[in-house]
Amino acid sequence: MKLVSDMFEERKIDKKKGVRIVLLLLTSLAAILIVSFTLGKEWYEGKSQSMFSFALIHFSGYLFFLLMPVEIAFIYYLKVFNLWEMIAIALGTAISAQIVDYLIGVSVSSAVINNFVGEKRILKAEKYILKYGNLTIFIFNLFPLSSPVISVAAGMLKYRFRNFFMYSLLGLMLKYLILSLFFQ
């Protein structure tokens, strides 16, 4: 026979799963709309791609609640636009979005963030930051890993902003230079 407290705990878990599913659907819809109203609209209307559409997609992809393949977008647009403009826009939009993620981590409650990302992912990110510090931030920005989640976790830990910014920027710069060398 189940205890009343067990039944309440099960309802609490079911409610969290329901909230997470709704949030996942809403963020997926937002990502689809962003791509549709930028890149998709340009394709449908037969227009050439614009830097604005790349910047919007790239910025959105670095927000922790929208998962988008920004490296693929960079490679795609690299065939269309000037290399140095692309790198500048990629770095500017990526670091801007990660600063937003960091500030969200500083200012929004853990419960809200955990509903978006999942408590396990945040705890894992925090563990890496506490254990390896700047190296974690650099590596997660260098490779196509979940650097936006690391940004939120760094904000939640109130990690030193200057170190967060510098190592994020270094990782991003190296990533986009390497991608440029291989795909230009």
Quick structural summary:
The chain crosses the membrane at residues 21-39, 51-78, 137-157, 164-183. With 184 residues, the chain is mainly alpha-helical. The chain has nine helices and no strands.
Count up the domains: 1
The overall average pLDDT, rounded, is 80
- Using only C-alpha atoms, the radius of gyration works out to 19 Å
Uncertain parts: none
Q: Pairing-aware structural class of the strands and helices? A: mainly alpha
Q: Which percent bin holds the helix content? A: over 70%
Order of helices and strands: HHHHHHHHH
Work out the number of β strands: 0
Main beta sheet: none
The fraction of residues in strands falls at under 5%
Overall body shape:
globular
C-alpha termini separation = 65 Å
Task: Compute the number of helices.
Answer: 9
Structure in words:
With 184 residues, this protein is mostly helical. It has one domain (4-183). The protein has helices at residues 4-44, 51-61, 70-78, 83-107, 110-117, 119-132, 134-142, 147-156, 161-183. Helix 2 (51-61) runs parallel beside helix 4 (83-107). Residues 69-182 form the VTT domain. This is VTT domain-containing protein.
